[in-house]
Amino acid sequence: MTEPLSVAGLLTEKDVRKLTRLARGGTVGPTAVYYAGVTAPIISASMSVLIRNAMIMVGASPYWQWLVAALVAAFAGIAWYLIFIRWSYRHSHGRGTETSLETRIDLEDDGVVIRRGGIETRAAWPSVSDVAVSGGYVTVQLVGAAPLIIPSKWFGKNKAARQAFVARLKEKALPDGP
């Protein structure tokens, strides 16, 4: 039985943004991309019909009817797509208590235990697939869960505690994941 190692601290808004970037592939969610991709062609087609009918009413030749309708339809679809994507940007990062409640991380014999307020999450050692140290953070990749970040500032000036913590994580983590 090894001695449990622990670290605790508050995540800052900057920490939560970094964690969000690790967990998400982009700033726009898949639902927004889907709806923008589905609605933009509908908007284009609708504008094409509307403009062509208007061009017929003003007596334009068939060439100008199709050309102007196609141009307006293309620009309407592109404009809608860009507007929809812009409206859909995710602006908030993290969950409600990530910056207001202390997070405690314990390395125990059977795995990693993360506690924040009344929530406790356990990850068995086989689910720890990667541990990386860079940019003032220790990043722990978990199979089937969001990554975990541990800001170096949580260790204060105790570099030995940080090194021991990272060494234990790396020792227990599977080299290539499960």
Automatic annotation (TrEMBL):
The keyword Transmembrane applies. The chain crosses the membrane at residues 32-51, 63-85. This is YcxB-like protein domain-containing protein. It comes from the Bacteria. Keywords: Membrane, Transmembrane, Transmembrane helix. The lineage of its organism: Bacteria, Pseudomonadati, Pseudomonadota, Alphaproteobacteria, Hyphomonadales.
